[in-house]
Each structure stands twice: as C-alpha cells, then as structure tokens.
Amino acid sequence: MGESEKISVGIIGASGYGGVQLVRLLQEHPLVDIVYLGGKGSAGQTYAEIYPHLGHAVDLTIEPIDTEAIASRCQVVFLGLPNGLACDIAPPLIAKGCKVLDLSADYRFKNLETYSSWYNKDRSDLDTAKTAVYGLPELYREEIKSASLIGCPGCYPTASLMALSPLLKQGLILPETTIIDAKSGTSGGGRQAKTHLLLAEAEGSFGAYGVAKHRHTPEIEQISSDLAGHEVKVQFTPHLIPMVRGILSTVYATLRDPGLVREDLLTIYSAFYRSSPFVKILPNGLYPQTKWACGTNLCYLGIETDPRTDRVIVLSAIDNLIKGQAGQAVQCLNIMMGWEETLGLPQLCFYP
Amino acid sequence: MGESEKISVGIIGASGYGGVQLVRLLQEHPLVDIVYLGGKGSAGQTYAEIYPHLGHAVDLTIEPIDTEAIASRCQVVFLGLPNGLACDIAPPLIAKGCKVLDLSADYRFKNLETYSSWYNKDRSDLDTAKTAVYGLPELYREEIKSASLIGCPGCYPTASLMALSPLLKQGLILPETTIIDAKSGTSGGGRQAKTHLLLAEAEGSFGAYGVAKHRHTPEIEQISSDLAGHEVKVQFTPHLIPMVRGILSTVYATLRDPGLVREDLLTIYSAFYRSSPFVKILPNGLYPQTKWACGTNLCYLGIETDPRTDRVIVLSAIDNLIKGQAGQAVQCLNIMMGWEETLGLPQLCFYP
Amino acid sequence: MGESEKISVGIIGASGYGGVQLVRLLQEHPLVDIVYLGGKGSAGQTYAEIYPHLGHAVDLTIEPIDTEAIASRCQVVFLGLPNGLACDIAPPLIAKGCKVLDLSADYRFKNLETYSSWYNKDRSDLDTAKTAVYGLPELYREEIKSASLIGCPGCYPTASLMALSPLLKQGLILPETTIIDAKSGTSGGGRQAKTHLLLAEAEGSFGAYGVAKHRHTPEIEQISSDLAGHEVKVQFTPHLIPMVRGILSTVYATLRDPGLVREDLLTIYSAFYRSSPFVKILPNGLYPQTKWACGTNLCYLGIETDPRTDRVIVLSAIDNLIKGQAGQAVQCLNIMMGWEETLGLPQLCFYP
Amino acid sequence: MGESEKISVGIIGASGYGGVQLVRLLQEHPLVDIVYLGGKGSAGQTYAEIYPHLGHAVDLTIEPIDTEAIASRCQVVFLGLPNGLACDIAPPLIAKGCKVLDLSADYRFKNLETYSSWYNKDRSDLDTAKTAVYGLPELYREEIKSASLIGCPGCYPTASLMALSPLLKQGLILPETTIIDAKSGTSGGGRQAKTHLLLAEAEGSFGAYGVAKHRHTPEIEQISSDLAGHEVKVQFTPHLIPMVRGILSTVYATLRDPGLVREDLLTIYSAFYRSSPFVKILPNGLYPQTKWACGTNLCYLGIETDPRTDRVIVLSAIDNLIKGQAGQAVQCLNIMMGWEETLGLPQLCFYP
After folding, report:
1. Where is the active site (chains A, B, C, D)?
2. Contact B199 D204 (CB under 8 A)
3. CATH architecture for segment(s) D155-320
4. How far is A108 from chain C (nearest CA, A)?
C-alpha cells in the first residue's frame, strides 16, 4: 500500500496520557499521518517540550482546538479530553465529515440521562450521541465498521466486560451475583498533578476508592444489560495499585449450572473470542499478570470454577492505557477503515 | 516495673521475615529479654550477618534448634518456622513448661483432619493441638489469657476476619454470599528466594494466585463458622501487590436486612471493637490505605453499603508482618502475661 | 520525670512531610506536648482531615500562623515552611523568648549574601541570623546546647557531610577532588503536587536534576570549608530514586596519603563519631542500604579505598525525612534541652 | 525483501532475561527466523511454560545445547549464557561456519589475562578470542561489519562508554579524573532467584555494590584506553535502583580546557554520533530519565559543564536489557548482515 493512501489524523488533548499513547501508536502506524495535535493549556508548546523523549520522533507543536482547522486538515480525529468537552467538539467535526473517536465518557451512553446523572452535565447533542457506537470491538465489531463516531470504553469497563461477556451472553451466570473487584495502576488517574497520585503517597500502598459509586458502574451495566437481554446490576469496586500501568479485574459470579467446570468455560470463551486477535485465553490453572499485557493491546483471561461455592472467577488483565484506552481506539480505527484489525498495534510486551 | 521482672524469650526461625519482626519488636519491648535465637540453615551465623542493619542492636548468634536448651533458658518461645515443623517442637517445649506462640499454620485448626487435608501432613500431637488457642485477640481475648499454646492466625485470615466478624457474629449477612478479595505485599511470601518474588518479576505487575484453593480458606471458614454458629463457606482470592508490606481485604456480602445503612454498621463495628485498642474504624466514606498500617499493629476498617445491590463492602488494612504476624503474636503474649495489651506495639506509622 | 516537666511545642507548616514527621516523632516524645499546629493553606482543617491515619492519635486543628499566639503557648517552635518564610517568623518568636528550630534553608548560612544569591531573597534579619547554629549535632553539638535558633541542615547536606567530615577535618583528602553523587527518594520533593513527582512519571525511572547548580551545594561547601579551615568547592549532583524515603550519598575524593587503607579509615571514622549515637559505621566491605535507615534517625556509613586510583569512596545512607529533616531537628531539641540525645528517636527500622 | 531471504537464528540461554529479550526482538525482526532455542536447566520445557505471556507468539521448545545440531540449523547463533560457558561453545560453532554473538563477558577482552584475572577462568580458545570484535557499534561499526564473532558489551560499559567516548577520543579530559557513578535496575542481576533481588528486599531501597572491584571496570578501561591511545584507569561504582529496567551512568571528569562550555560539547557529541541512529543528545539543560529509553535501543545523553569546578558531567540513560544487552546484539547482527542498522529495533518507548 502506497504512501499516498495514508490518512490524516488529528489528536486533540495530546498532552495527556491518552494523547501520548495515541501519538506513540499512530507515529508507527503504517497507514496514518499525524497532522494535528490540539490542546487547551498546552497550545503553543512543541511536543518535545511536553514529552522530551519523543523529541527525535515527533516534530509538531500543540495547536489551539479549532474545529474548522481540524476538519480541514484531518479525516479522522481522536479526542482525548476530560469528560464533558467532547460533546461540544464532536458534533461540528462530524458535520464537516470527520470520523471521530472519543476517549472520554461523553459518547459511551445510549441513555443520556444516565450520563447526565453520573457525570453532572446536561447534554444537547442527542442526535449526534444516537449515532455513536460503543468502541469495544470484541462485542461491537460490526457496528464499528460503519460508524462515524466511536465512544471508546473506559479502562475498567474494558477489562471487566472482556471477562464477563461470554458469561452474560450465554446466560451462564446469575447476573445479580456479579462482583467486579478491579485494580488499576495510577496512570489511570491521568497526568494532572494530584496529591494522592504522588509517588510519595501512592508507592507502597494499596486502597479502594469510589466504592459503590464509581462512574464506570453504569457503563458496565449498560453493556452487560445489552448482552444479557435484560437489566443487570453489578457490584464494582476499583482500587489503586502502586504501579504505573495495568488493570486486573477479578470477576465473581454464581453459575446457573453448578455442573460447569473450568474446561467447559475455556471452550466457551475460546469460541466466543475466536475472531478476536487480541484476546488470549490462558490454559488450565494459569492466571494473568498485568505486566504480560503492558505495552500491548492484548487482554489476557484466566478462568477458574469453584465447586465448593458454585462460582466462576474470571481474571482479566490489560494495559489500561492501550487496550483500555488508546490502543482500543486505534483498533476501532482499523476496523472503521477496513484495515487489518491488528495494524500498528503491539502484541508482544517487553518482559520483565 | 523492675528489670528483674522481665521474661526470657526465645525466637526459633529467627532468620525469616516473621523472625526479624519479632526480634525488632521484642528488642524494644520493656518486659522481654531475647535470650535465644534458633534456626536450622542459619545456625552458627551472627544475627548481624543475616541482618546487618541490626548489628548495632542485637548481639546474638543463631543456635541450633535444641528443645532441651530452649526450655532451660526461655519462659516463652515464639516459633517462626515453615508449616509442619512446629508440631514436632511445641509438644516437648510445652511439656517442659514453656509457653509457646506458633506463627505457622500448625496450631490454627481445631480439626486436624482439615489441617492434614490442606497441608498434606499427618499429625500425632492431637493432645497438644487440643489445647491451642487461635491467637486473634479481638475474638478470643479471654481464651488467650489462660493459654499455654497459641496458634497465631495467618495474615490473610487476620485482615479478613477483622472485616467479617461483626457481620457474622450479629447475623447481619447471608454468609454464603461472602466474597473476600484479598491483596498482599510480597513479603508475605517470605525471605526464601523464589523467581516470582524477584523485584524484576513482581514489580509493576499484579495478579491472583491460589484461586479457589488457597490454604487460608479453611482457616477463615473455621473461625467464620465459629462466629456464625453454623458452617460457613467463603470465596477467598489472594493477589500479589507490587510492594513490600501490607494487606487489603475487600469483603463483600449481601445484607440480610437491606435497610441497614453505613451509619448503622459503623455503630455496630464500633461497639464490637470497643475494647480493641488496635482496631481503627474510619469515619463515613473513608477507606483505608495499607500504608497507614505499615510498621504498626493496627487494623483500619472502612465500611460501605450499596443500596443498589443490598450489599455491604468492608475494607480492612493491616501490615501483614505485624498485625498479620509478629505483632499479633506479641499482642497475644501481652495478654497471656497479664500486661497492657499494647505494650511494645507501635501504633503510629511513618507516613509517607 | 513528671508530666509537669513536659515542654509545650508548636509546629508551623504541619501539613507538609516535614510537619507530619515532627508530629509523628513528637507525639511519642516523652517530654514534649504538641500544643500548636500552624499552617497557611491548611488553617482550619483538623489534622485528621489532612492525615486520616493519625486521626486516632492527634486531636488538633491547624491554626493560622499568629506569632503572638504561638509565643504565648509554646516554649519551642519548629518551622517547617517553604524557604523564605521562616526569616519573617523566627525573629518575633525569638524576641518573645521561644526557642526556634527552622527546617528551611533560611538559617543555614553564616553569609547571608550566599543565601540571597542562591535563594533569590533579600534578607533584613541579619542580627537574628547571626545567632543561628547549624543543626548538625555530630559536628556542632556544643554550639547547639546553648542556641536559641537552629538552622536545620538540608537532607542532602546531612548525608553528604556525615560522609565527608572526618576526611576534611583530618585533612586526609585533596578537597578539590570531592565529588558527591547523591540520590534521594521522591518525598524530598515535598507534598505539593508536581507532575514530575507523580507515581506515573517517577516510578520505574531514575534521573539527575539540578546538575552543577543545586542549592545544597553552597550549604555543603560552607560546612566543608569550616571543617577544612579553608575554602572548599565540591561537585554535587542529586538524582531522584523511584522510592519514597531515603538518601544515599556516594562520596569520592583522592587521598592525600595513598597508603591509607580501609581499615585505617574505619578506625578514624569510629573515633570521629565515638560520641554520636546515631552514626553506625559498617564493618569491612559492607555498604549501606537506604532501607536500613528508614523510619530511624540513623546514618549508616560504608567506607572503601581503591588502591588502583588512590581514592576513598564513602557511602552514607539516611532517612531523608528523619535524620535528613525532622528527626535531626528533634535531636537538636534534645541537646538544647539538656536531655538524652536519643530521646524519642527511633533506632530500629522495620525491615523489610 | 522476500520471505526466502530470512536467516535462521538460534538463541542459546533462552530462558534468562537476555534470552527473552532476544526472542522478543527477533520474533518481530523482518529478516530473522528463530529456529533453535537452547538451554541447560530448561531443556525440554516449552517456551510458553517459562514465559506464559509469549505462549501465543512463540511455539518452540528449549533444546539441549548441541553444537552439532545448532550449526546444522542456524546461520547465526546468539549466546546468552553465564560467563565462562561461551568460550567452550563458540569455537565449534564458528568452525562450522556460524556467526556468533555472545552476550557474556567471554569475548569482550583483547587480553585474556585480564579476563582470567577478573573472571577466575583459564582459557584455551586464544585463536578464537583474537577474532572477536567488541560489539559497540557506535565505536566499532566497521570492524563489526566483517566479524564472525562478537563479544557484546556489558550493560554498564555500554552506558558509560557512550558518555565517555567523545571526551576520550578527542582528548578533552584528564582521563585519570574520570569517575563513573552508575545505577541499574535489578533485572541486570538476571532471573536466578537471589535473596537480595527479591522485591521485599530491593524495593524501597538503594545501595552500592562491588565498590572499587566490579568486573565491568577492566572492560570500560580496555575500551577507554583504546580510545585515548594510552592506558586509562577509571573509578566505577555500580548501584541497584529499586526498579526493573534501565541504567543511568553519571560520568564526571575534569576538562583539559576549562574554557569549554556545554554548547561546545553538545556540538562535539553531535558530530561524534552523527551516524549513530540510536544516540539521542538532549538539548541544553535537559537530563535523561531512564524510563525514556525503556523498551528501546536508544541511548539518551545529557551534558553539563561546571565552570566552578572545571568539570564536565555527562548523563547516559539506556535500557539495560536492550541497548545494554539484547538490542545491541541485534544492532550488531544488522550491521554484520549488511542490513539497515535500525531494523527490528524499537525507538519509541511507552511512556509513562
């Protein structure tokens, strides 16, 4: 495929962790040219000033967010802004013919009332929002193919739904028994300086936050309900791990049929994810380490049943900034453009 | 109290992490003299050779494990050996009049068949085992007072039972819904060199192990059943955190009475632990960080209810090597000797 | 000694890391009552709101910085404020009869022009500054005894001067060959949220900063010159270690007499620090780990000579927040009050 | 270039960290097929048993080390064995026509007596050793082109020599003033379980080792002497950083001409490394973070002069397992084969 077939891409919110992952991945993507880096506070800075390690590879300056200019230069736009901003920027971009992939929560919800009640923001872009597709390719690959607007999933929902989906879709569990105990590296908190994310505070410590009220709960429930065909409520508890990258979700649910054993579930999961190149189901008795997924777009799944309690326990590991964010967005881009789904997406971590 | 009233104490298995915590704590305990350090592989080494940072404080050499010699010199003996060794050493020591506090699993079980089936070791010390008291002072303070043999709890059971006990004792939850998602620093794996505990392997990673089959499960179930008054089964999943010290247990259960709210439970927990100086119940909406407990014998508890799911979620943080091991043993010693329960036990961490 | 003999102490700047160490140490000091916590941004907050883990131990509220009120209630005042503020607060406190221990750089310099040129602040408190004593007890114990104002040393200078002093004092090295390659945990950067101190940025990374221009250079040189009896210039390079606490200084210098061997220097160092209870000189061939000093007021020194190059290499490890800051201030207090130098100061770390 | 032009490669010592980096890099190298994984203790295991995260990518079993079989199947062989083994394996492989790249110390020394005295091993392969080229492409690119046997540099020497070479080659410093204060992540210690490399021991700590006697000293001196044209002695001190990957070398030396300023040296370094695609010289006042190099074959250099002391300070950051080991070996392979030097070698890290 020739140089001329590359598409022009803009990244808005390029100075954050989502942004720098997108820059990193798209810089090496064979069919993409990054032509616009946009930001608010960082406008005017060269990218090398913000991320000196990329000085040799990226020779761009952050520009102000000007939808007119963006649309005139970009075929595809990634939005990596804080929640509540994309819903103002995406509509004009779409109207001007851009494809938009939004990494915030703004376009993840079918029901904007759910969004508004959890994110404290009223919305007037209902028509645009209706066209958005939830960007989890393993579940919505077909819809993504023809979408113009992708609401990329949150990091916790990605890890959790990868673990839960086969169980819900096939009706194998009692949905109301679902408990998701999730743990994330601190990069999930973003690059803004917050005291509790300082190394001096977070290193050598582990704790929960947002117990019974984290905003990823309704997102997980929306997709879970879609898969189950009826409303599902889950218990979701996030924790911070003293490390940079990675999420592990430990998912518990009671099996509808206590006769199911691990081997059965391995078969079911393998079938469910047969066409999903980034899902790696671990053999009998192996559980994933988050580090195995670091720097890749992979999701590792480990599955266990407990005959003493009739429960299934699924362990799901991803890199929160790649499969949980920027990599998944690129995966969606590949699908939207009709390219190989794995194009430009790493599958081998650097271990250790 | 005069110098002459100090008791003479031996620590067997002094070269491991349990051992060095005991040495550290007892070295500063006002009523204890360490007179015997025993070990197998390390016999003949000075303590400063094993732990150079203590060279200025501890001038003792590890001696072979000779029960005759130990009993002749020690009134109290702490055993910090691998599982399956204490059951050979404790009986002669007790027969010779020593009080024994065992940090291994050997004397935690009322039912030795349970022990044998989970620890693959047959036992012939039934008479001795029958006299052992489970060394969790917050639950068995009275029994500990008059005990000669203490089976000190495991680190995970300590954290988990502190969270669960008020709920089970008062019949507030449906016991079979109990899920314990526990996380520990790697020092819980001991000081023996194992590949998966290398910094290069464990740092920057998080994963589960022993899913549905960890040996702390029957221990938690034994005490839970005792508290509930009937057999209780729990789901217990341990994980390794990339840090040295600390355990967080996240405990989930369905409330029998969905009308109970957080404030009710805070009241119930405060009453339950009223006479327990090491338990700190956090006010509304605060959840513990493991680091707060590091270097102390404290257990911090945070409590939440979820009206959406009728569940209670309790978060319990301890230092796995102190409240989860050596500190708790010293707490038991204090109670056995009729001393102030907090004697020689730190209550203020060095933060950050 | 009776309760009535306790002194009343205030801590200004109590919300920072220096402050919380002082609170932690003085809370357990047998002859001190903390009666005033002062702060600027944090005034009005309870201490438990800032540091929840101390909620059970410290029942005080941060008050505004009012020198009148402070002096009326406190015999001794610790100042833990950013550089450039103590020089406005100390003079009125001293005038009203308080003893003052300042943890900032304001009173470390004999020559205020040196201070002004490195800290960009003009000073008008020359008379007060002249009375200040540099609070490194191992070098200035006699002067500290009768001082009313202590300029507590910086963390890097403490570690570095402990390593260098015997060499300079005895004229054993060529001073101009001195190179100090120092490394610190990130808590040295304080509790204010700065991007480069986020766990996500600092974890898993190591780098230098302030090369050839760090403000601790003139401080080290002032004391080095005082010891050598002539002006000394040193090369000082600080680095950030991905961990919370601890400093290691690696100090290099060319020996004046190449015939000196390690054993000679061990003897010289032992004699030099004979009356210094917190200095621990490691035997032949042992080098300190920063973790050995964590949570203690100790300084571990390891010494090596290289006959191939005629250099001496000294390794010095401290806890930057204790011996490098708050603990050293308490050590000075003990000396000023005529108490045992080690009172209330921990000497045993929790290892691992 | 067609599939048929790929070369067949063997990796001996594939289970260690050097081995797994080679597997990782060569698996994605467009002109290489891995056809043989060899090992001693690990022979018979599948690679997925040793490194489960690679189960989906590498379908090979470790075979015994049989030079006959290796030579019959491989054109190029990488040796990643402990020191002292390659010197028995390389000669027969070379005799049978293989090109050999050895990651151990065995072929780094021109003078085998130096090797023998530092590595305690007598050698009988003098003829083979004479043909070996030191595999630091930035210095010996021409010699590597035609070599059959490469002695790949140690990790510390790589970082240190990248910093030192322009200074030595151009005679800009007084060589005897050179001090190299080097710091490494713990993966440099390999995958064998050693107590001091446990996370519980190494995390949260920093210390020196091998002071004045580390085996990388003669290696650095050999190349330094070669560059300077006369014998050079350096002071080299390694330290362990509590992190997995990365080396920072802080190099000090006195300038021959004190008039030289940073800008001069930036110009000189840029010229020296003009044809070296992996060397990135940072602009004025920027110093490298090791994390910038992680997962890449890059070496970042930061340069400072100190007019107060007439010294130059150079900071050099690499990934110890890539540019410091496996990546550099692949870089040599590319040069030996006449391929693009950067082929298959990552240049963009995943930050943070």
Report:
1. 155
2. no
3. 2-Layer Sandwich (3.30)
4. 26
Mean pLDDT to the nearest integer, C285-311:
98
- What is the amino acid identity at position A81? L
Reported ipTM: 0.96
- Per CATH, C3-131 and C155-323 having the same topology is answered no
Contacts of B192 (CB under 8 A, 6+ apart): D195
| CB spacing of D195 vs B195 below 8 angstroms | no
User: What is the residue extent of each domain of chain A?
Assistant: 3-131, 155-320
Residue with tokens 């819809």: A143
Is 3.30.360.10 the CATH number for B156-322? Answer: yes
Whether pLDDT at D100 is above 90:
yes
**Per-residue model confidence as pLDDT tens digits over D24-73:** 999 999 999 999 999 999 999 999 999 999 999 999 999 999 999 999 99
List alpha helices for chain B, DSSP H.
Answer: 17-27, 47-50, 67-73, 86-95, 112-119, 126-131, 137-145, 155-169, 199-202, 216-228, 262-272, 290-293, 327-336
Nearest-angstrom CA–CA distance, A203 and B244: 10
Q: Give A319-341 pLDDT, tens digit per residue.
A: 999 999 999 999 999 999 999 99
User: Scanning the structure block, which residue is given the tokens 């105990």?
Assistant: A181
User: Catalytic residue at C87?
Assistant: no
- Cβ atoms of residues C335 and C275 within 8 Å: no
**Domain C3-131: which topology?**
Rossmann fold (3.40.50)
The H-assigned helical ranges of chain D are: 17-27, 47-50, 67-73, 86-95, 112-119, 126-131, 137-145, 155-169, 199-202, 216-228, 262-272, 290-293, 327-337
Contact call for B352 and C244, based on CB within 8 A = yes
- If pLDDT is split at 50, 70 and 90, which confidence band does D284 have? confident
Q: What is the DSSP string of D43-78?
A: TT-BHHHH-GGGTTT---B-B---HHHHHHH-SEEE
Of the candidates C24, C187, C191, the beta carbon closest to that of B348 is on C24
Mean pLDDT of chain A: 97
The CATH superfamily holding the domain C155-323 is Dihydrodipicolinate Reductase; domain 2 (3.30.360.10)
Q: What are phi and psi of B304, to 5 degrees?
A: -140, 145
